[in-house]
Design a protein that fits this description.
Layout (H helix, E strand, L loop, with lengths): L6 H11 L14 E10 L32 H20 L12 E5 L3 H14 L7 E2 L22 H12 L3 H8 L1 H12 L14 E3 L8 E3 L1 H17 L14 H18 L3 H7 L4 H9 L8 E6 L1 H11 L18 E8 L5 E9 L2 H6 L6 E5 L5 E2 L2 E2 L2 E2 H9 L1
Parallel strand pairs: 1-6, 2-3, 2-6
Antiparallel strand pairs: 1-7, 4-5, 7-8, 8-9, 8-12, 10-11
Helix pairs in contact: 2-3, 7-8, 9-11, 10-13
């Protein structure tokens, strides 16, 4: 059960609510937000392997971490609690959560990795402090086809259609030209990875390839751009974790480097996760749940629902909806640890339903400090939608059609 709050806490919360809106730029027309679904990436974690990258990628050993590979860190959990508290204030203002009582109309769904389960638990701690909330998930490390419908065979790919989607994303000049366009940044990344030992070190030595999709496997990058994406993400996580400067890229990576290198990670998602055909297929396990949360009119239906998943899940949804963001300190469109696409259902006086999207994430400095005082939170237009004269606002029926693909 939830512990009672002091009068001082309630007064402070009421004061905060007076100046906080659920999202920026809400329509002046009386549209009421009555449902919210968040597709969120898990929080800060170490690399997913004990040896983060192949031997020879870096000139020195990678820094150590305090938890197992791929697990949510204590710092990452604190950052999730902080951003959940930010969300809580907006949800209370919108009437989606109660001011003092424990919420009953809230749903939490997580993938079966430790980092996603722990992220959902940390979010629960921040969004409903002192309460005991149920988190839906499979046993830890048991694959969940809801989050991996292609690999599980529940949403098989047509390899020809997947190949055409990737070719369109890459462009007519091919992946070699894409790599050439990133060459200056590859050289800059290798300087961080290798220092002066560049002859047999770094990520830029092996040409980039794309492994084609099969019915049960998504296309995958190989070579320079693949390894650059991985290295860039590790450096971002080191910085976000709050590691001392000499452990972030061996003391050779600045905050501006982190933001620049994130372009490799964002590029990987643009090529492989955002193309609508692939994105729709890889969302096939979660889309029905999103649709149910946005349409269920039962008196006990969740008003707030969270999916604690992965960067790929976020990029898939962004690809389906054509969403783009630019979080301070992070490369454009790169899914941020703890960042979320927020889907709001709005209802007018006649009972008509609409969907609006936004992106909410902590900036790189806030991740490093594990705070969420002024997170990035921006309404994003949904591609191809215009309802009630508002560009980017979808009717609920049009939104559901987009999810289906």
């Amino acid at each position: 059960m939830r512990t009672s709050r002091t009068g001082r806490t309630l007064a402070a919360l009421a004061a905060m609510l007076a100046g906080v809106a659920l999202t920026a730029g809400a329509p002046a027309d009386p549209l009421q937000v009555d449902r919210v679904v968040l597709m969120m990436r898990h929080g800060i974690r170490p690399p997913t392997k004990a040896q983060p990258m192949p031997i020879g990628t870096a000139a020195a050993a990678w820094p150590t971490w305090s938890v197992k590979p791929g697990w949510l860190t204590e710092h990452g959990a604190s950052a999730i609690v902080a951003v959940a508290d930010f969300d809580r204030i907006g949800f209370i203002k919108a009437g989606l959560l109660p001011l003092t009582d424990c919420p009953t109309r809230i749903a939490l769904l997580a993938d079966s990795d430790q980092r996603t389960i722990a992220t959902a638990a940390s979010y629960a701690k921040g969004v409903a402090p002192g309460c005991s909330l149920t988190i839906e998930h499979r046993p830890q490390d048991e694959p969940d086809p809801m989050f991996n419908p292609i690999e599980s065979g529940q949403a098989p790919l047509d390899p020809a259609r997947a190949g055409a989607a990737i070719d369109a994303a890459v462009g007519p000049r091919g992946i070699a030209a894409t790599e050439r366009g990133m060459k200056p940044l590859l050289i800059r990344l290798d300087r961080v990875l290798c220092g002066s030992a560049t002859a047999t070190c770094g990520v830029a030595r092996e040409p980039t390839t794309i492994r084609p999709a099969t019915a049960t496997s998504r296309p995958k990058l190989g070579g320079a751009l693949d390894r650059a994406s991985t290295a860039a993400q590790i450096l971002l996580l080191e910085y976000a974790e709050g590691k001392p400067a000499n452990e972030v890229g061996w003391g050779r990576a600045t905050a501006s480097d982190i933001a620049a290198f994130g372009a490799f990670h964002a590029l990987e998602f643009r090529l492989l996760a955002r193309p609508p055909y692939i994105a729709t297929r890889n969302l096939a396990g979660l889309s029905p749940r999103i649709a149910t949360w946005l349409t269920d009119e039962a008196p006990t239906a969740p008003k707030v629902a969270l999916i604690a998943g992965h960067d790929t899940n976020v990029a898939n949804l962004a690809g389906v909806l054509g969403l783009h963001w630019n979080v301070p300190g992070i490369a454009a469109d790169d899914p941020v640890p703890g960042g979320a696409i927020q889907l709001e259902r709005l209802t007018d006086g006649k009972g008509n339903h609409y969907v609006r999207a936004s992106y909410r994430a902590q900036s790189l400095p806030e991740l490093r400090a594990a705070t969420a005082k002024t997170p990035y939170h921006k309404v994003l237009p949904i591609a191809g939608c215009k309802a009630r004269g508002i560009n980017g606002l979808c009717t609920l029926s049009d939104f559901l059609a987009k999810l289906r693909g």
